[in-house]
Amino acid sequence: MPQFTYREAIRHALAEELARDKNVVVMGEEVAQFNGAYKVTEGLLAKFGPSRVVDTPISEAGFIGMGIGASMLGVRPVMELMFWSFYSVAFDQILNNAANVRYMSGGQINCPIVIRGPANGGTNVGATHSHTPENVLANHPGVKVVVPSTAYDAKGLLKSAIRDNDPVFFLENTMLYGEKGEIPEAEYLIPLGKADVKREGTDLTIVTYGRCVLHSLAAAAILEKEHDVSVEVVDLRSIRPLDIDTVLKSVAKTHRVLIVEEQKPFASVGSQLAYMIQREAFDELDGPIHRLATIDAPAIYSPPVETEQLPNPQRVLKAALAAVA
Amino acid sequence: MSKKPTATAEKKSAPTAPAHDPALAAINARLSRDEKIELHRKMVRIRRFEERSLRAYQAKKIGGFLHLYIGQEAVAVGCCSLMGKHDHVITAYRDHGHAMAVGMDTKPLMAELYGKATGCSKGKGGSMHYFDPTRNYWGGHGIVGGQIPLGVGLAYGVKYQGNKGAAMAFMGDGAVNQGAVHEAYNLASLWQLPVIFVIENNGYSMGTSQERSSAGALAKRAEGYDMAWGVCDGHDVYEVRATMDHFLRLAREESKPAVVEIRTYRYRGHSVADPDNTYRSKQEIEEYRRTKDPIQVFQNRLVAERVLDEALIEKIDTEARAEADAAADFSEASPYPTPDDIQKDVYWEADNPSERKSEGRLFFD
Lengths: 325, 365
What we know:
The structure holds 2 protein chains of 2 kinds. Chain A has helices at about 5-20, 45-50, 60-70, 90-105, 135-140, 150-165, 210-225, 245-255, 270-280, 305-310, 315-325, and strands at about 5, 25-30, 55, 75-80, 115-120, 145, 170, 180, 195-200, 205-210, 230-235, 240, 255-260, 290. Chain A is an alpha/beta fold. In chain A, the strands form 3 sheets. In chain A, strands 3-2-4-5-7-6-12 form a 7-stranded mixed β-sheet, with helices on both faces. By secondary structure, chain B is α/β, with parallel strands linked by helices.
């Protein structure tokens, strides 16, 4: 099977959907002529032309709001945020307008928009550019939130997101753009809201998503080899809708849980997961639910220390050993 | 107050520059007797609806906020009377007048205020969130200026889909200082999108006068974005129509955006919770009522034109009052939504389960 990077997988999903549906428009800062700040959209302008691949000014509230308005008329804008961190300057558009317009209109208006871009730390760009807002976004009923960890998942999930009639927020990761994975030549879709067991195991369930899936898999290999601990890694892939059933099934198998997330701990996605697991699988648990998150402070700049602030394989390993102790 | 529309340099290239007497402008000169009566009737119906809703609010039938449109009727009625098939409207929270101007029925509008299931948004939106996409009416938005980028998006959609149409994005004078409005101006001009930004300047952003909140002339800010702009008297429905027709044609035919400031006045407080005794005088309100009331101004005009007479004026008013009462009775008799309705209309997929493609939980407890 051919290998592609996570970046290429997203690009291919965009190209396939642009070719499939003339209502799809790709918009954002530097997406066209510049070929994308992270080169995700490279070549799309040449292939689809300036009416389908549109450079916007640095004006997130303006162009995201514009995309929402256009989506109400049936256009399917796929908007790139250069960083999801910039969602804060378009917060009203994203979380008042896109999230609420269907509800406030009594179901008369749909908002089939996709907003995508990277949301991660680890690139030494300081606190303003390192936000992971999936918990904030998912707190708003009406929206869908997707965080793919692999090239294969990114492509199949993005294609589903673009065809979805509800607003979908798609959170990528600059640290994953260069990661390669196998991608079939034939078209495929991955439904939103379906978790994926990335590694099977019997002693501990790690519930995770995004780049932390890679950290967890790396730690799981060490745990198997050096500590004789068999870890099952459940990749949520989608935060809302949430496939809690796959999580609960794994908990029923391993009876121990570690949540790994690149979130600040307070009211994180992991907080919600921990609540649901204890509520729905209390009798299956042999110990308290553990969690490894980002160390609770704004993102530090200092490069070697930022690595330690975020989850990493060594921190996951340590947390996993504590969870099975 | 300018009596004459002050269109900018665009005036030269205008298909129909506003006539000196707006009644003589082609868009008004060709109105039939019935069409003129209908303009008057719409303004009267809006006022009676608003007065009836105020009484319902005072009787504690309505929750939350209630921003009344009384005094501004000629703006929405004049603008929306010009709408064609591909023209769209979006506005802020003082949205009842626009809803009626695009043709929404008063029963579901009043029922929405009452929070009833028969409301235009099934009791989920309330006063500030009226919508009717079948009439190209896209709300009804609560956050000052937040709807303006959406209005640009409507214009983008019209242009992208290859239609000849325009979006009218209404805002109050208080909205002009919001960042989102300026971002929207820039995009509209940069991409030559067919949108008219309509500033309904009633002189006060809540309780703060224009002089105390905005530097410089409001519509003139369009010059900084290389956009056409104009100012007109919002008490005269003919002038509103003449001015807006000019800019709407530029938008529809040449895809040119514009900013139009329409000077108007509200007789009631910002919302009914506003005691309205700190920032303006009773004399000021009375002066507007006496000399500039948009319904009275147009009624006088139509009497002079021999379109209206006392009997017809009386009949229209009686019918408008009866319609508002009937809307209130309908609302009173309507059921509330049930707790089971709370989680409907959140996701398209949840409401269309047979077509759902995603899996997993959409709702949490």
